[in-house]
Amino acid sequence: MFGEKVLDLVGELKRARPGTIPPYNEDLTRQVIEEMRVLFEENLTDVSEAASEKEKATPKPELYPSIHLRHVCLERNQRGLLLYNYNRLVKLRDLRWELGSILPDEFRLSLSEQEVQWFQRYNRSLANYMRSVGGGVLDLTEYTQPPKTLHIEVRCLEDYGDLETDNGTVVQLKKGRHYYLLRSQCEQLIRQGILEHIQ
Amino acid sequence: MKILDQEIVSEFYEKLRHQHVLVLAAWDVDSVCACKILQYLFKSDNIAYTLIPVSDIRDLQKALIDHSGQSSKVVLINCGGGVNIHELIESDERNQFFIIDSYRPLEIDNIYSPEQVNVVIDESEHLKFPEYDEIYASDMDSDDEGEGPSNEEFYYEGEEEEEEDEGPDTKRRRLAESFQKRRKKVVWKKNRQQVLLEYNGLSYHGTAASILMYQLALKMSRDSNEVLWWSIIGLTEQYLYEKISSDSYTEKVHTLRPDVLRLNRNDQDTASSINRLRLTLENELPAVLYRHWSLYDSLSHSQYISCWFKTWSMRGHKKFLEFLADMGLPLSQSKQPYSAMDASIQENVKDWITSSALKFGMDNITYSSFVSHIGYKHHFSAADMVYCVSAFLENNVEPSFLSAIDVLSKGNVKKIFEGIELAKQQQKAIIQQARSFTEKHRVGCAGSFMYFYVEENTPNCSWFVSPITLKRLAYYLRETWNTTNRKAKDLP
């Protein structure tokens, strides 16, 4: 039946675990395109037949339903393919924000060639944009949410020693203590695993 | 210097602004609650702080020394009131201490110290401090004191020699003067001792730190249901662990009641108002965690009831069952979890218990308290929360001040249940230990003190490492002792 393969293709993408990209199914894509080509050619002949016979004044209305059916199948396949490709790109874009500009190998291998190219171009435009705003030092991927408060509550997970803050006070970071500090000063330490952010 | 609660905003809070504040908190429920309120206030004012839990005076000293050069403002919650801060550390001139301590008596040196050490006091307590002149000598006297009597004599003798030619009259006058002076000083010294003895003689607890913090929030118009709830928990802890008498507890509850009513007016019950924290005033049974336990367990594990019936003995246990029967409560129902009991029983059980208790000779066993409701499902009384928080503080595996703070955060229901389970274990351990002591007659009596040993390697001993649990065990044993030995009624 028409349209089943494209459903498989979309289903495959949907079944993938969140945060991963399944390998690009080139084989199945090609089969879908082949199916579409066949449908299109059949429609073409039928349409030309129906159109050409108009002049002989014996129209063939019995051809219309099959033309219509094929056309709907074609449109459905097209929609499925677009869906497949678009959603892969959305996933890829999310990965860029999560993992940064260099993709790990396991993702890179499951991309098609065009997708790799798209990824590079996306990287480039993002970098250009980030350079143009915030004086060129702002990493947008780190601050995806606008901060609600200037300070955050943190807990110290291991002894660190003295931390000198911007306004000159020295804070001693020790295990098992609770602090309320400027967000900007903590972020580095949170990423190092010394501080823990309390929501 | 004292800061009265009237001027707590201007003298205490305003001085903390724009600085990194060091908060030192003692290891008890009241200070957890006070911290929570202070954190809430600091958060809304963007005041950076460091919070360090301290469990004893050595901890306190160490923390102060570690941070002496760093934060100039130090807030001490429920600690440091009873010790002379200046003696504890050689503090920097820039450091300023604020003490909020429910422990009384407060060290007199802290009260009369200049700007550097400030003690926040609730005026309604009517604390009486000795007059400054009674404790500290004026300049002239203190000079003499420093030099000691022998020096003094020498000084006068030297003077005499010098001024020999002045004639006997002047000499006699001078001698008389110096005698008078010395007599005055002896009297003053005696008086000082007397006054200090009277002042320091008894130790007790005053207004809870969390109540003071609530007043602070109230004065700044930042009070909310959460803040009020935290201060109620702090207050309830003082009552449950017998830090304050039931009279002063009732008095405090009465002052908080209007606030509860004000913040919990019966507005239109919209979905959003259901899911927020709501507080109601209710009478509480002296039963431990009964909302989350079976009624049978809860009653038999509570101090008052179990001591009254002496449930550790066979006869006492029978009497306890009789008590349950008198209420008209089937045993099968009372052994169910409270929430699974029949709804009709749940509604009436409080009245039944009170009336049966009257019959059995216990008078007025309920006390007024508050209950918080979150959504339709969760109801926690202030007492439940106290047991829950202190279970985290006193956990025998891994005591943690910070997880005790987390429990109080909004919407942390899962953690509350975790704490309640821990609290049940704790309560069971206390009761078991006490029972085994009473059965083996391990409680000794020495004059006006009683003593007992908790042996190492007994199954429950790990619980009694922490002071609050140990204290609760002691209170329980005292209660059992009081009920079993008639002679001992007049002992403390």
From TrEMBL, chain A:
Gene3D superfamilies: 1.20.58.1030. Residues 46-133 form the GINS subunit domain. GO terms for cellular component: GINS complex. GO terms for biological process: DNA strand elongation involved in mitotic DNA replication. It comes from the Eukaryota. Coiled coil: none annotated. It is found in: Chromosome; Nucleus. Signal peptide: none annotated. Component of the GINS complex. Required for correct functioning of the GINS complex, a complex that plays an essential role in the initiation of DNA replication, and progression of DNA replication forks. GINS complex seems to bind preferentially to single-stranded DNA. Required for correct functioning of the GINS complex, a complex that plays an essential role in the initiation of DNA replication, and progression of DNA replication forks. GINS complex is a core component of CDC45-MCM-GINS (CMG) helicase, the molecular machine that unwinds template DNA during replication, and around which the replisome is built. Belongs to the GINS1/PSF1 family. This is DNA replication complex GINS protein PSF1. It comes from Amphimedon queenslandica. The gene is 100641507.
TrEMBL record, chain B:
Keywords: Cell cycle, DNA replication, Nucleus. One of its GO terms (cellular component) is DNA replication preinitiation complex. Residues 138-172 are annotated as: Disordered. Its main location: nucleus. It is found in: Nucleus. GO terms for molecular function: chromatin binding; DNA replication origin binding; single-stranded DNA binding. Residues 138-147, 154-167 have a biased composition (Acidic residues). One of its GO terms (biological process) is DNA replication initiation. The keyword Nucleus applies. Belongs to the CDC45 family. This is CDC45-like protein.
